[in-house]
Amino acid sequence: MSAQDAREDRWERFREALRRAPGVAAEPSARVEALVAEARPFFEAAERSFQAREAALPGDARSLAFLFAYRLGDQGYAALAPAAALAAWRGTWTDGASRDALEEVSQLVLDGYARGREDRARAEAQKALADALPVAPVAPGVVLVIAAGPLEADGARALAERAGSVMLRADARTALLDVGGLVAPTGAALAEVWGVVAAAQMLGVRCVVSGATPALGLALDEAPVPELALRTDTLAEGFQQALREAGVGLGAPRGFASWARSLLSRG
Questions:
Q1: How far out from the chain centre does Cα 126 lie?
Q2: What is the pLDDT of residue 2?
Q3: Is the pLDDT of residue 251 over 60?
Q4: 58-67, 121-130, 208-217: range with highest mean pLDDT
Q5: Alpha-carbon distance 195 to 49, whole Å?
Q6: 175: β partners
Q7: Rounded to an integer, what distance in angstroms lies between the CA atom of residue 225 and that of residue 189?
Q8: Which is deepest, 55, 94, 115, 213, by most CB within 10 Å?
């Protein structure tokens, strides 16, 4: 058997061990294959260091160990999956020295998986927040977009994508972006929120931004975003300005600001 054939035979035995392993056995075949694909670069780098009789795993193998486990966590594999992969690898083609050396990456694998799960949970929460925020036509040619809560860059990006789609479908002439409810936004998040303004500009839609408090206004000035929109202090003022920009001869209805804010609590 050639060296290449021997290597592929080991990977086939690794694959079969994974299919029987707790935390992986219930996964669809495609997910098992994806796990093997994630594991292979790390284990092959580790194997090279073992063959060279290195005292410790080199930096690239350690980085791959963390990345391998991180991606399992980020892709939603069960908590037993990283340990199952390590056990399958040990049982498939490592000697005693290799098994001992592999122990040094165990903590990296645990840390990587935990970080991946945390980031996945954060991304899911941000998507849920972005999906819940109101983005809707509120007058002929006027679309209201409310950016609020602890939006991070990923959530703000999803909100901007929704806003662009709604503006296009509504044939909007003006977009009203209210940022008064944002909670401690970072410069990166504000840059993504400003994607609403950029999307409006691409569609030929005028944009009015309301609710920029003095502190938030300063953050907006310092964020890496272009000055593309009119600004107003309050949502009601922003609505009046948006109507004027859209050429709609209506005043803000009584209680409009309270109504618009209530959309968030119903979202």
A1: 7
A2: 79
A3: no
A4: 121-130
A5: 46
A6: 143, 207
A7: 11
A8: 94
Q: Does pTM top 0.90 for this prediction?
A: no
Q: How many CA atoms lie within 13 A of 68 on its CB side?
A: 30
| CB-CB contact of 32 with 19 (8 Å) | yes
Reply yes or no on whether the pLDDT at 103 is more than 70. no
Buried b / exposed e over 257-266, threshold 16 CB at 10 Å, is beebbebeee
Give the span between the Cα atoms of 22 and 35, in whole angstroms: 14
Quick count: other Cβ atoms within 10 Å of Cβ 128? 11
pLDDT digits (tens, 9 = 90+) for 2-24: 777 877 888 888 889 988 988 89
* DSSP state, residue 105: G
Location of each CATH 3.30.750.24 domain in the chain: 133-266
Q: Is-contact 229 193, C-beta < 8 A?
A: no
CA-to-CA dists, residue 104 to 66, 88, 100, angstroms: 12, 17, 8
Match 């945390």 to its residue by tokens: 118
Q: What residue type is 56 in one-letter code? A: A
Residue 265 is predicted with a pLDDT of 47
